[in-house]
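Morning!

As promised:
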Amino acid sequence: MSRAIGVLLLAPVGAFLLDAIAGAGDLAFPGRAWLNTFVAAGVATAIACGFGIPTGALLAQTRRRWPLAITAVPLAFPPAVLAATWMGLRLPIPGAVGCGVVLGCATWPAMALTVAASISGIPRAEIEAAELHLSGARTIRRVVWPHARFGIAAGALLVFALATAEFTVPSTFAVPTISYVIYERLAAFEFASAAWAALPLLAFAAAAAACLRRVPSLSSQTITGAWLRGPARWATGGVAAAAWALTVALPVGVLAWGVGSGSRWMRALSIHAGALGWTAVFALVTAAALVLWSAAGRGRSRLEPLWLVTLLLPGAVVALGTLRLADRTGLQSVVGGTAALLVFALACRFAAIAWLFLREAASSSSMEAAELARLSRWVTWRRIVLPALLPRAAAAGAIVFALTVGEIGPAVLLSPPGRQTVTQHLFNLMHYGYDDAVAALALSILGGTALLVWMATFVGRPNLAPVGR
Amino acid sequence: MSGVQISLRSVGKAIDGKPVLTGVSLEIAGGEWFALLGPSGSGKTTLLRIVSGLAGPDSGQVLFDGRDVTRVPARERRIGMVFQDLALWPHMTVEAHLRVVAGGDPSPFLDLFGLAASARKRPDELSGGERPRLALARAFAGRPRVLLMDEPFSSLDPLLRRSLSDAVAEVQGRDGLTAIYVSHHLEAPVARASRVALLREGRVVQVGSLAELRSDPRDEWVSAFVADDSEVRA
């Protein structure tokens, strides 16, 4: 059952591929859009390297959870919030480079997390053995670098894929990138043409997913030995502090300044209360569905790389696939006026996150010990599986909820008539300029997302690693 | 309670196409303390998992008291096992570990393995010597007929290793359990065994008491493997 649902979650990408084949004759190559895309994604990747590599190295050496939480926050909130911050700073309307700066500020944590994961996989003894024989620089070059390079490559590809796929920032600033072009073609009902234009993004997503598979899971690792010392540690700490200040503290400050007062914030929220409520309901349904599905699965799945690809594709592409799937199967006439297609598209998009959080929550040796102890299936589930599963389920649910709230592409294309998400409201308002309502909505989304990520970091990484000797 | 006579008949197993065990046949008497000795990768752990029922053989049979249990699930074999990584349940206290397995009062097992003072601690709060004791206590709490130990004391110092093996041997002798102890080197719990089977590349090279293996080794490899007995003599 779990596997069948897993296959179903890939159906939109299949439908998208069929449309791409149908649109293969479209020769209107969007060269200008690709140039803008490469500039923006390249700048974003450079910023991610600058902020993410030192921060990742720092994260790999600390047991404290708050640095991880504060690093992960920008990755979860919608890039539109950072675009609103840019507007709040009264900076000139940016071109492709400016879009790249905003996207880099939104996606750099992906680099930090992959670097931290790859470095923290180094056995402590390996570092200590190097310390006995090598200088600090040689330890980094000969011992740390061979592990870190996969994390850096995966992080760079991941950031590039995410920046290429993002469309709200270029759309807000009217910079035609490929994702913006795809969105425009979709809005004009040129489905096959949009799918054909989006096909290269599938290659980026597949490359990033393949690279990510070589990076160890951060949650299963312990901290590495202290190979960063003295000035090097201070320097990395300084870069991390600057990154946190620029991408978390600055948006909070600018947006809070833009709101002005609590009463104005409350008034803006009350105007959008309907959208807030609707967003919370469908995000909750999506998160709950994915958590239940992932919790029912056991072990690893060969479909994991494909779910990762779906995660890294633009949301609009997954929405397009969902829409075309519903058209072809006749489901459009049945569920077209409901939120079912939106929930399904978002579930397809974020399936990898829920699955990777909940996969193998209880270790196989724990389960074998329960079997030999002749615990019944019910007692095994209640006493062994559930305690291991619950914190991860809460964390996965919180992250999926936050990402679902921030997703704009599928919401624009698949929301039922008369319904809009709160992030859609923000996106629409930003086209009229920056005011206290924009600041209030952006600040609320930022605050809610930060709270959820914070919770997921502290609840979802309990000390439940299998205890050995 | 009496131990189970275990018979392995031509047991074979391959993992990822590579043979791990080839034609392994062994007879272990009820209530015997038996040791499986061999270098890393010789198939000791795989053989133990086949006896426990956690893995099935590709060929051959496993018999308990003459009854074919090759396809009997692990939970129906009444096995107590101490895993190589101990496999403690990280969210449970010591007391909860024993209560959930014993299905009642855990205090006899707490006292037996000197864990009463740590009853409310979780595994990550236990010392390096307490964790294997908890793993042993859990194995006994299930009132097994067979006790399997997969190098459970290898990270402990020799004195602690000897005292723990004394404690286990006492309960094993009292209850007449059949015990199989796996190790990759000659250590006190191996020397305690009435017989030792030497495994190399998935095959049984020689079976006999430690004295027999030393006095009449089949080849130079066996002679070299059982020669280093510094810990046993200590």
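Chain B has a mean pLDDT of 88.

Hope this helps with the figure draft.
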